[in-house]
Amino acid sequence: MSEPAPSTADNLTLALVAASNTPVLLLDGHLAVISASGCFCNAFGLDPAKVVGHPLVSLGQGEWNVPQLASLLAATASGRAAVDAYEMDLRRQGQETRRLVFHIRNLDYGDPGNIRLMVAVTDITDARLAERHRQAMLREKEILLQELQHRVANSLQIIASVLMQSARRVQSEESRTHLRDAHHRVMSIAALQKQLAASGDTHVELQTYFTDLCRSIGASMIQDPDEISLIVDADPDTTSADISVSLGLIVTELVINALKHAFPDQRKGTIRVGYRSGPSGWTLSVADDGIGMLPLSAKRVVGLGTNIIKALARHLDATLDIVDAAPGTRIVITHPSPTPGAPS
Length: 344
Hints:
Elements: H1 6-19, E1 24-28, E2 33-36, H2 38-43, H3 67-77, E3 83-90, E4 98-106, E5 116-123, H4 125-169, H5 173-199, E6 203-205, H6 206-221, E7 228-234, E8 238-240, H7 241-261, E9 269-278, E10 281-288, H8 299-302, H9 304-315, E11 319-324, E12 329-335
Parallel strand pairs: 7-9
Antiparallel strand pairs: 1-2, 1-5, 3-4, 4-5, 6-8, 9-10, 10-12, 11-12
């Protein structure tokens, strides 16, 4: 197919420019306006009769006479450049400064003697303002979140202190046990909150998370590390912060349960927290080599901690299994999805 005659090409280009619903200009080799879209004239308050036939740099009250823009137009007309996303400020007397983005192309339509430049202009002022506003809101949200985390941490410490003082004062051994259990749970929640606050991200790396969490639990509950070891063996998977809360609470409850019941009479032993993730799903387990399982009717199995774990497993749409490890007990949470929180 032969190239169209220059007049035909010009007529087609003029029609496309005039019909454009975006600010577009067609310039000749001398950088004078051959055609301008109505959107361009409306966007920048220009009289169409005073646009066509005039150099771009002379439009308006001279606000388009920017030396760098003129240089880029001239370089594009000579074939030495193609302008993508050149930004400049359009300053007009008595009006708000607008931030503009230019895309400039030298049209090649088979007539090198008649240079045509297509200039597309995008006003990004409002978009930039909205982005700055969004960033400011994010910074404000981060500051508020840090303040909230600080207050939560202080409140948890106060509650834990009150519970421990109450445990020392009461005469009933049963009441003392319940208060100590409450103290351990509050301290575990404090450790959980501390790890999540330290992550500072919407996603949590589980290997580090479980390790730090167990280190905090062990520091508050294991008096002699030579007698009871707490080991974490986890894949370096990541999950969302809300799912990590459920996983952390499960680990916390199971580890506390093992520390309280698996090693009576200063028995030595090991607690292992394991996490594996693969194509067939993920598995979270807490195992000990202590005295082993008690009957299902025993308080240890149907107590508050076990009910919490079952509720959290249901929340994760996971299954809970209690296995006699001989010696000890192994609690396993499994889900068919390879990533915690993902659908089955």
